[in-house]
Design a protein that fits this description.
The chain is α/β, with parallel strands linked by helices. 32% of the residues lie in helices and 17% in strands.
Length: 444
């Protein structure tokens, strides 16, 4: 290509003019004020996205995530660590400033002032400005990826306090698991387990008193009319999935995800229908927690399934954005759970035979059913070949590299190619309020 351009100076000039015009158009694109959908597939690094793509779309296919227009490399470091915790990562997304790794929102003894100068996070600020807000989580409702947007605590394990703050936050829609955190000890919930609250409060009754329509299953959620104003979905006793190693799930006869619970895509689609009916700008924060929790258990099949579900939700949001031009869709994880590697298997290898339990350097390796099981088989590539591979694990923790942020729709062109974790807040703030957090406006 380069030699062709050099041989034809006019062609080179035209190409340069085209690139310059494209850049100028992006720089000059007007700032739009509107709604934001932030999707947080927790723990999903680039390699996990590649593994999901191989299984769902094939090496030459395109995921819904791939179809988002803009992307940048994400930096996850915090004030006192080169990486982050889930609760500190969520605090940065909600407040726009770096914090210590053991931070769950802003509390009196550990104050966090947001980048806009407020003592609350962006979702509470949006509520105060009269915008609609909603949170969706495939995990329990106190999971930080969404919980920090509505609650603060001295510890992420202060779930009695966190769950009460979420229920009483004023959010329009709250969907997730965690029924045991809503009921007092001695009370059995709809999902068959006893409540764990020590303060004696029944937050499901409290939600009803606050005007929420409470639903417990996929069928109940999907049957709701679009005229419902407030919805509180409680779809599992704890998570809507069972985050255990593959072998433990098989031994106990448990599914990866509870079939009675709605998928992340179903929760997203219903929430967007309800939010659209309100006729005002909104902030919707969505977390797929399974991609992090299964990866922390080194369950490759579970992590890939979780990310597939996140990808479906991204597809729902992307299609919404393409018919609602003033809406920004932004997606990022806070870290790379397990930091997986995709281990190619020789084409001549028998794909029915178990993989070794580790790679040559000792890294644990998963096949389709866990350790020492046959390999994953990708969907067909452009030549019709279905190629085998294994998943190698570097850790069971949340690692500090490998995350890619993406954006689509309103203001997506302003996503930096080098994305600091604080930039997520900045772009969300700009779209909701029309200025950067410091009050300035991007240059035209």
């Amino acid at each position: 290509m380069h030699s062709l351009l050099l041989r034809f100076p006019l062609l080179l000039l035209v190409a340069l003019l085209f690139l310059t015009a494209s850049c100028s158009d992006a720089e000059r694109a007007p700032v739009q004020t509107g709604s934001v959908i932030f999707i947080h597939p927790d723990g999903s690094g680039g390699a996990m996205w590649t593994a999901m793509r191989l299984m769902e779309y094939g090496p030459d296919g395109f995921s819904e995530w791939d179809r988002l227009d803009h992307l940048g490399q994400y930096r996850s470091h915090q004030r006192n660590s080169v990486s982050t915790s889930s609760h500190a990562g969520a605090t940065v997304h909600a407040f726009g400033v770096k914090v210590d790794v053991d931070t769950y929102g802003s509390v009196p003894a550990k104050p966090v002032r947001s980048a806009s100068g407020e003592d609350v996070g962006i979702m509470i600020e949006a509520l105060k400005a009269g915008k609609a807000v909603a949170v969706i989580n495939s995990g329990h409702l106190c999971e930080p990826g969404t919980g920090v947007f509505l609650a603060s605590a001295f510890s992420r394990y202060a779930m009695d306090s966190i769950s009460a703050q979420i229920v009483e936050s004023g959010a329009d829609i709250i969907l997730g698991g965690g029924e045991v955190m809503l009921l007092p000890a001695g009370v059995i919930g709809r999902h068959g387990e006893e409540g764990r609250r020590k303060d004696g409060r029944n937050l499901i009754d409290r939600a009803k008193d606050l005007g929420y329509t409470v639903v417990f299953t996929r069928d109940e959620l999907l049957a709701l009319p679009d005229t419902v104003s407030r919805v509180f979905g409680v779809f599992a006793a704890y998570h809507t999935f069972n985050d255990m190693p593959e072998e433990a799930l098989a031994d106990r006869g448990l599914p990866q995800y509870w079939p009675e619970a709605p998928t992340l895509a179903e929760m997203t689609e219903k929430s967007l229908q309800l939010l659209e009916k309100k006729g005002k700008d909104f902030l919707l924060v969505i977390e797929e927690e399974g991609s992090d929790n299964f990866a922390n258990e080194n369950n490759a099949a579970g992590a890939i399934e979780a990310l597939r579900r996140a990808d479906q939700a991204i597809g729902v949001a992307r299609r919404f954005v393409e018919t609602h031009s003033n809406t920004l869709l932004i997606t990022a994880a806070d870290s790379d759970a397990g930091s997986i590697g995709i281990h190619p298997i020789g084409q001549d290898a028998d794909p029915t035979q178990p993989l070794p339990p580790a790679t040559d350097n000792g890294a644990p390796m998963d096949g389709l059913g866990g350790t020492a099981t046959p390999p994953f088989i990708a969907r067909a590539d452009a030549f019709g070949r279905r190629l085998p591979f294994g998943i190698a694990w570097s850790s069971d923790g949340d690692m500090g590299a490998g995350v890619i942020a993406r954006a689509h729709g309103a203001n997506a062109h302003l996503l930096p190619t080098n994305v600091d974790n604080t930039d997520i807040y900045r772009l969300v703030y700009l779209t909701l309020f029309g200025t950067w957090p410091d009050g300035s406006v991007p240059s035209p």
